[in-house]
């Protein structure tokens, strides 16, 4: 789900193997995440809602916390509902904290920070990104990228352009060492936003083009289309 396998191929693989595993919550989470990337949001939400209900009936588990903090947040951000993403992010972090789980707690904090940024709650986004930094281990590439991306965007919005660009480029460098195409795309897209906010639309468009290449390779239809719109706007701004 997070690597280089295109969404369409993952969906075929799930169709072929899911019946062998019964109601496997990992497979269902991957299917929901993949459907959301194709713009099939209601199907994705329905799968995750059912999975959360079934897991809640068993009591709090790390799997319930993960599906709440990660897939549920990601689907809502793709669907353009950051309010719902923040609610899931806060709930997912709380579940991890109550369980005493330290492995996924930094990533849950970073995901909540990203959702808060999407809702324009900049101070809270920055605070949660700092928390993700404090909680995290340096070998957690996703967390190390995401807290930098959020802090970079917040700093850029505050006019702190040099620091913002440094953090955004650090996130891209970490992303490029992984095989996570979507995460790479997100890191380049955020760099593009930071550069554009710094008054450099042409450089921002270059970063967005790199993001688009990765979203297209992954088959992330939603983010590819979103990035094309942003690219068009930036290129118009660079031409004036």
Characteristics:
240 residues; mainly alpha; 12 helices; globular
Would you spell out the secondary-structure blueprint of this structure?
Layout: H1 7-21, H2 25-37, H3 41-57, H4 62-79, H5 82-99, H6 105-118, H7 122-135, H8 141-157, H9 161-176, H10 181-197, H11 201-218, H12 221-239
Helix pairs in contact: 1-2, 2-3, 2-4, 3-4, 4-5, 4-6, 5-6, 6-7, 6-8, 7-8, 8-9, 8-10, 9-10, 10-11, 11-12
What can you see in these coordinates?
Helix 1 packs antiparallel against helix 2 (25-37), helix 4 runs parallel beside helix 6 and helix 11 packs antiparallel against helix 12 (221-239). The protein has 240 residues and is mainly alpha-helical. The protein has twelve helices and no strands. It has helices at 7-21, 25-37, 41-57, 62-79, 82-99, 105-118, 122-135, 141-157, 161-176, 181-197, 201-218, 221-239.
Q: Using the CA coordinates, give the radius of gyration.
A: 17 Å
Shape: globular
The ordered H/E elements are HHHHHHHHHHHH
Helix content: over 70%
Number of strands: 0
Query: With helices defined by DSSP (H or I, 4 residues minimum), what is the helix count?
Result: 12
Instruction: Pick out the low-confidence regions.
Output: none
Distance between the termini: 40 Å
What class do helices, strands and sheet pairing give? Answer: mainly alpha
Arithmetic mean pLDDT: 93
Sheet-strand content, in percent, reads: under 5%
Q: Sheet bearing the most strands, described?
A: none
